[in-house]
Specification:
Blueprint (H helix, E strand, L loop, with lengths): L14 H24 L1 H8 L6 E6 L5 E6 L5 E5 L9 E5 L2 H8 L5 H6 L3 E4 L2 H18 L2 H7 L11 H15 L3 H8 L2
Parallel strand pairs: 1-4
Antiparallel strand pairs: 1-2, 2-3, 4-5
């Protein structure tokens, strides 16, 4: 048997899924940054994180990634998708692009994906849980209710998040997340 007759089969690049994951991580990253400036609960959670705390969420092994740091001012700042040259205290990675696509198309919540072993977390567990809570709050504001109920473990009821406050904060977060600064972030990271 001649091995040279059977060429190695390489998997496809999955360009669409990677581009979709990049856009979702960009929007969620900017949404987390905006939610920190708008929502009181997110501010309280961020206050408990150490100064200079940097975390990343992305798709293993080759990305895309979202990197966010707590600045000296106490605010979260979206740093883009490049992890190189940054000290990352908490690294959350989705096992592969297929699992990421399943999570980012909201067929599986983040909590359920974690239970199914699609996440790996490298860092302090209480900080990871705090970041997951911040991501859930940002997703509640960024997504319509019908989709957000699929994306988060528990959607808040009217007593916890009155409709008037929810829609006003949602508008403020959209304006901050999709402001012209978004285009500067994309251009800076290309």
């Amino acid at each position: 048997m001649n091995i040279d007759r059977y060429p190695e089969i390489r998997p496809g690049k999955k360009v669409f899924k990677k581009a979709y994951a990049f856009v979702v991580l960009l929007v969620v990253g900017r949404g987390i940054e905006a939610a920190d400036r708008v929502d009181g609960e997110v501010k309280d959670i961020v206050r408990g994180l150490p100064e200079g705390f940097t975390f990343s969420l992305g798709v293993a092994p080759s990305g895309p990634w979202m990197v966010i740091r707590k600045e000296k001012s106490g605010k979260l700042r979206y740093l883009g998708w490049r992890r190189f040259g940054k000290t990352i205290e908490l690294d959350m990675a989705i096992r592969n692009i297929e699992a990421a696509f399943r999570i980012f198309t909201f067929r599986e919540s983040t909590a359920q994906a974690h239970n199914n072993g699609r996440f790996s977390v490298n860092g302090n567990l209480p900080n990871a849980l705090a970041i997951m809570r911040i991501m859930d709050i940002a997703e509640i504001y960024l997504l319509p209710k019908i989709i957000a109920t699929l994306a988060v473990k528990r959607y808040p009821d009217r007593r916890e998040l009155p409709p008037g406050r929810k829609h006003f904060n949602r508008l403020r977060i959209y304006l901050r997340a999709f402001s012209p600064g978004l285009f500067r972030v994309v251009y800076r990271n290309l």
